[in-house]
């Protein structure tokens, strides 16, 4: 029997893979996955003509709980913004130095083997840095 922590990691990886495929299908180029800046992490960093996207992926199994994107609270937004700053300061080759930074959320909800994807572009504007 798979333990709960391992199941959550497997589910999260599946959700991130689906989110990447979704973003690519709408014209994004994936620049990084699971980017770490110290103890901070960004699930996906992508680029499209609008700018650079810092994407938080929230994955859940279908249930009566709140939608997964509701777990991207102010504290998570602050950590993501700090990690994004770390990425921008350390990135050696960005598509453009003069680009918009966009913070998105992709919610992936599994119902049996079917996955529903909800993309929330410009989910928030960080005011914390």
Please give a handful of descriptors for the protein shown.
129 residues, alpha+beta, 2 helices, five-stranded mixed β-sheet, 40% strand
Structure characterization notes:
The chain contains 2 helices and 5 strands. The chain is α+β, with helices and mostly antiparallel strands. A 5-stranded mixed beta sheet has the order 1-2-3-4-5. Strand 4 (100-111) and strand 5 form a beta hairpin. The longest helix is centred in the N-terminal third of the chain and has 22 residues, at 4-25.
Helices, strands, pairings?
Layout: H1 4-25, E1 29-37, E2 40-48, E3 51-61, H2 74-90, E4 100-111, E5 114-124
Parallel strand pairs: 3-4
Antiparallel strand pairs: 1-2, 2-3, 4-5
Number of strands: 5
Give the termini distance in whole angstroms. 43 Å
Topology as a string of helices (H) and strands (E): HEEEHEE
**SS strand fraction:** 35-45%
Radius of gyration: 15 Å
Question: How does the overall form come out from the CA principal axes?
Answer: globular
* Largest sheet, strands/sense/barrel: 5 strands, mixed
Instruction: Supply the helix-strand structural class.
Output: alpha+beta
Summarize the structure.
It contains 2 helices and 5 strands.
